[in-house]
Specification:
single chain; mainly alpha; binds zinc ion; elongated; 6 helices
Length: about 120
């Protein structure tokens, strides 16, 4: 991969990182809203249609998003490190180049499609 492409993906990764961090703040707000007991202000958070089930569901979803975010951030950091040491764009499993079409969609991709499919989930 040439330097210009590296730069491009580095920018994409930094933008993606910002997006995830921003999304993380939104998730925190959802978490707060889903836990009115923590804020102590019931009236502003609890509408008359919301029941305990909805709140539990929101909390559940928010914590699930949180896990995905943390995971994504780690992968983005990893990819930025690979850009720094020049191994970016190479499948960490088989050493083949990761197709650019894939990097366009997932700049922090670590595996080529072949290895991704082989990985146990
Ligand atoms: Zn591979």
């Amino acid at each position: 991969m040439n330097k210009r492409d590296m730069r491009k993906y580095e920018r994409a990764l930094l933008a993606e990182k910002q997006r995830v961090l921003k999304q993380g703040r939104v998730t925190d707000e959802v978490m707060d809203a889903a836990c009115p007991d923590v804020t102590g202000d019931l009236s502003s958070h609890r509408s008359y249609t919301a029941d305990q089930g909805t709140e539990n569901y929101q909390r559940e979803m928010a914590s699930r998003f949180k896990t995905i975010e943390t995971d994504t951030l780690r992968q983005i950091e990893d990819a930025l490190k690979r850009i720094a040491d020049g191994t970016f764009g190479i499948c960490v499993s088989c050493g083949e180049p990761v197709p650019k079409a894939r990097l366009e969609v997932v700049p922090h991709a670590r595996f080529c499609m072949k290895c991704l499919k082989k990985r146990p989930r």
